[in-house]
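Single-chain item
Fold in token form
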Amino acid sequence: MLSKILESLYLKVFINIIVERSSTTIHVEVHSKTNEVSHYEHVFQSTKLTEEIYEYITSHISESPYYYISFLDTSHEQGALPSCDKNKLSQYQDLSTTEYRCINKSWTTYTSKTDLYELEKKYEDIGIDFIFSPFVVLTKFFKDKIDKNLAMFVLIEDSSLSLAVFENSELLFAEHLDMEVDLESENMALDDLEDEKDFELELDDEGIVLDDMDVDDELEDFSDIEDLDSLEDIDEFSEGKDLEEELYENEVRENTTETPESDDSHFNEDYQRFSLIQNAFNHFYKDTRYESKFIENIYIADNTHVSNDLKRYLEEEMFLNTYIRTVDLGAEICELAKEELGL
């Protein structure tokens, strides 16, 4: 009782740390004694705990003894498994070198013990209270969809993707994938994609000839294009898009101006993201350890402002109904920290 009284006399400060490919974002939320909330956020161009980052954090936590520091897990060796039964978990993953936690008595998140140790050592001068899995962030962010849908859910960060298939809150499959860019293979993949778009046309005395294509055999397939186009008027294959998702796609993407250089960068990275998502689908469908089911919908939590290319790839190449919401990772992690504290 006394501790509660003392706590009410001080500010509550939440520090939320997101380390990305080449930067660190610090999201700060301060609750006053009258429960007013202030928000601060700063992006530092470093992935290390520099003196500048240290001073920024300490300037906020010095305001109160009641401060909480949360971190979004960045381990390469992390993931989620569709069970909490220790005997079943071993069928999916060797967890002997990991820390793992059961979520909702239904599924498990895990991460590398070594990476946790290195993270705690890196931030030992300020300490870390909570380390949250991106899969937990993903399920909280899409709770309204996960509770009542069969779909793939994806959290896109600057340098990684966390993918999970849920059906009515039950996890069926999950993968955490890093954006390791191999320029040579990336360029080859992009060349292949461009080749698919182009037909070689030849002119002879009789007119245009399409190489390597039997016109009679293909005409029937092309006749369906008009029918497919008409489906756009039927609420995206009867699923329907949420109003907020439509607003996000129409407003954010149409109002975003990009230089040619940024267009190329988006194209390269979004094609790589598409390839990773496609590979995850193949893994889910083909790996007999998972209860594979046909998926028509994909929900994306976007922390990087992906371009229209990714959505187009998913819809045109994989025929997926694709919904995208922007996500504020700092704010989401802060909410999870408050939940852990019962606030």
Notes: The first helix runs from residue 2 to 8. The chain has a mean pLDDT of 81.
